[in-house]
Amino acid sequence: MNGWFSLLRRAVTPWDGGVLLVTATGIVVAILLPFLTPASHATVVVDNQPRMQLDLRQDGLYGVEGHLGQVAIEVAHQRVRLLEYASPRMIGTRSGWIGANGQMVACVPCRVVIQVHGSSTEEGGYDAISR
């Protein structure tokens, strides 16, 4: 056991720790960046079919017909939530507000899914640039 530690200690330099730190930071930023970008709209999907686009910059109450009946959706302060619907356990309403890019909320019995999207790729912006 002591032999492996001394071999590792001789093979690793202080610069290796710096490279590891920069790499780990880059990975964390790449994973979290999509969730930190501001969201501009949400897509309401019923039975795997997009039914409605909601602009998160305009507050309001909306309704969509789900599998079990009418589903109320509320938009306020650039966030969206399932407000009320005819579901036995109301799990979707307990999910609360969503507003970060990529977040989703669903009512499985009603077959309604709401997904929040950012503005860059949806409004004609660039997804990526390479040379």
Reconstruct the topology from this structure.
Blueprint: H1 2-11, H2 14-36, E1 39-46, E2 49-55, E3 60-66, E4 69-76, E5 79-84, H3 91-94, E6 104-107, E7 112-118
Antiparallel strand pairs: 1-2, 1-7, 3-4, 4-5, 6-7
Descriptive keywords:
single chain, 131 residues, alpha+beta, mini-chromosome maintenance (MCM) complex, domain 2, 2 domains, 4-stranded antiparallel beta sheet, 7 strands, elongated
How would you describe the overall organization of this protein?
The protein is an alpha+beta fold. It folds into two domains: 2-35; 38-118, mini-chromosome maintenance (MCM) complex, domain 2. It has helices spanning 2-11, 14-36, 91-94; strands at 39-46, 49-55, 60-66, 69-76, 79-84, 104-107, 112-118. The strands form two sheets. The chain has a four-stranded antiparallel β-sheet with strand order 2-1-7-6. The mean pLDDT is 82.
Count the domains.
2
Low-confidence stretches: none
Q: Compute the average pLDDT.
A: 82
Please estimate the helix content. Answer: 25-40%
The portion of residues forming beta strands comes to 35-45%
Output the strand order for the largest sheet.
Answer: 2-1-7-6
| Cα radius of gyration in angstroms | 22 Å
Please report the total strand number as a whole number. 7
Please work out how many helical segments DSSP would assign.
3
What is the second-level CATH architecture of the largest domain?
Sandwich
Main β sheet profile? 4 strands, antiparallel
CATH class division of the largest domain? Mainly Beta
CATH superfamily of the largest domain: N-utilization substance G protein NusG, insert domain
SSE class: alpha+beta
